[in-house]
Amino acid sequence: MNIQIFGTKKSADTRKAERWFKERRIRFQSIDMKEKGLSRGEFDSVMKAAGGLDALLEENAKDKDTLALLRYLTDDAKPDKLFENQQLIRLPIVRNGRQATVGYHPEIWETWE
Questions:
Q1: Residue 100 and residue 88: Cα distance in Å, rounded?
Q2: DSSP reduced 3-state for 88
């Protein structure tokens, strides 16, 4: 497995995900979204694996103005705006190759091999 965990140090779910993998002695790479966000290819891959744009969106994000703007954009413009404003993405993003989850989902991670 080649696990990558995208998150922030302040995110409780990111810390829980890291602990989950550590407890099972599964090696992972931790990427701080504040320092280095997702590349466009990673963003598109995660969006596809997670089930679309709505699965990525954090409805309780602090940036309410951009969140409201996303609701009124056309479907074609939404991915670009979310890519530009990655602070609106739900964390953690856990990737294993082409598979990815958004949020804390140990029930899915257990099925990865």
A1: 17
A2: helix
